[in-house]
Amino acid sequence: MSNSTPTPIAVWKEEYRIGDARIDREHQVLFEMFHELHLELQTTVRRDVLKSMLLNISSHTIEHFQNEEALMQARGYPGLERHQHIHANLLKKVSKIIGKFDQVADFTPDEQLTEFLHEWLAHHIRGEDQTMIHFFRSLATASA
Fold it and tell me: Of 7, 52, 98, 142, which one has the greatest count of Cβ atoms within 10 A?
């Protein structure tokens, strides 16, 4: 932790927009949540606040993944199983962090956590989610 001005992280950029309003909004909320967690980790670390933030991030992420996977299933996306596996791996990592937070009294996540989450989300959107959306657009074009 430093006493200097907190460094922003996880800033939404238009390049992350995939074109589905619900998914885009959920992504924006995740960026906002990661940013808020990052700020908390750079300032006064309050374990109760951190725990609440981590649980909210986990809950929103699970809901987002379910929405995304339902969309893929409804549209017959061939990469669904791979995408589900990628989602499950992230959820395992987040769950492990929350478990460690609960079990180790002096464990406090650091800024590397939010850097990891931000990088994971940005990479996932630019890669996996863009591939998914290209598939959906090709369906729309083929049926037009």
Answer: 98
Per-residue model confidence as pLDDT tens digits over 49-80: 888 998 999 999 999 999 999 999 999 999 99
φ/ψ region of 58 (left if φ > 0, alpha if ψ in -120 to 50, else beta) reads: alpha
Domains of the chain: 20-143 (1.20.120.50)
Angle at the Cα of 135 (from 133 to 138), degrees rounded to 5?
A: 110
- Return d(Cα 17, Cα 15) in angstroms, integer: 6
Lowest mean pLDDT among 53-67, 95-109, 128-142: 95-109
Alpha-carbon distance of 89 to 72, in angstroms, equals 18
Q: pTM for the whole thing?
A: 0.84
